[in-house]
Prior knowledge:
Shape: globular
Number of strands: 28
Mean pLDDT: 87
Strand content: over 45%
Largest sheet: 10 strands, parallel
Low-confidence stretches: none
Number of helices: 0
Amino acid sequence: xxxxxxxxxxxxxxxxxxxxxxxxxxxxxxxxxxxxxxxxxxxxxxxxxxxxxxxxxxxxxxxxxxxxxxxxxxxxxxxxxxxxxxxxxxxxxxxxxxxxxxxxxxxxxxxxxxxxxxxxxxxxxxxxxxxxxxxxxxxxxxxxxxxxxxxxxxxxxxxxxxxxxxxxxxxxxxxxxxxxxxxxxxxxxxx
Length: 191
């Protein structure tokens, strides 16, 4: 879906054999939805790969289930491998402005340079906007996927659950490995 509206609900959906390779600037990719304002329940990205080679300062978004979440994502999983040169990268959603709950990532996630990358969410509560609720939360989520960055310049924030968060994280766990290779850069890594 391109955009799920505020009253929209997508549930019990499984998508497999996904393959997306692109190099356009300002890419936003989500396997179930690019942007979600509604509710995504029990949806699964079951296999494949996404590769975005376009670079730029935080202007690309790639999530295993949703690109940008402004609504609810419940009980959903990702098993897709995603590589992003720069931007926001998350196993479930690249950017979260509201609620991600009960989700699991198994997919391998990798980025190169300027990026916020997390096993569940790349960036949570990145900016305040009047149309986004103030409670940015990640609850009851688990990451099993490997997370890595091969940074030659720029800033990379890597986290087993979230790369950068301005919201709440409750009862989450990371069991995936996190690997950071960098040269003369500012890097932040957390479990």
